[in-house]
Amino acid sequence: MSCAVFLDNNAKPKSMSRAKQWTGQIEDLYRFQQAGYRDELEYRQIKQVEIDRWPDTGFVKKLQRRDNTFYYYNRKRECEDREVHKVKVYAY
């Protein structure tokens, strides 16, 4: 993603593909999508808050869902191999 995308608060994805293998980025996308968001960009547009991350792994620690309840995540990997193909990767 380019920096220009973060400056445009109304950025819409141009295409979508599915994840093929696990990476740190896929882990974060999995966590955002579990909480009901496309990705970090959509979360920041809607909630306008800083994202809590684990200091050692950098993974998302806590997300607020649209109904204002919270999801708390472990510092270790949560997206199992059998779940990877369900993660949507958006291109802007």
Describe this structure in words.
Belongs to the MEIG1 family. This is Meiosis/spermiogenesis associated 1. Pfam families: Meiosis_expr (PF15163). Essential for spermiogenesis. With 92 residues, this protein is α+β, with helices and mostly antiparallel strands. 26% of the residues lie in helices and 20% in strands. The strands form two sheets. A three-stranded antiparallel beta sheet has the order 2-3-4, with helices on one face. A two-stranded antiparallel ribbon has the order 1-5.
Number of strands: 5
Low-confidence stretches: 1-6
Per DSSP, what share of the residues sits in E-state strands of 2 or more residues? 15-25%
Considering DSSP H and I runs of 4 or more, what fraction of the residues is helical? 25-40%
Average of pLDDT = 90
Question: What is the helix/strand order?
Answer: HEHHEEEE
Largest sheet: 3 strands, antiparallel
Kindly, what is the distance between the CA atoms of the first and last residues, rounded to a whole number of angstroms?
A: 7 Å
Quickly count the helices. Answer: 3
Main structural class:
alpha+beta
Widest sheet, order of strands: 2-3-4
Dominant shape: globular
Radius of gyration: 13 Å
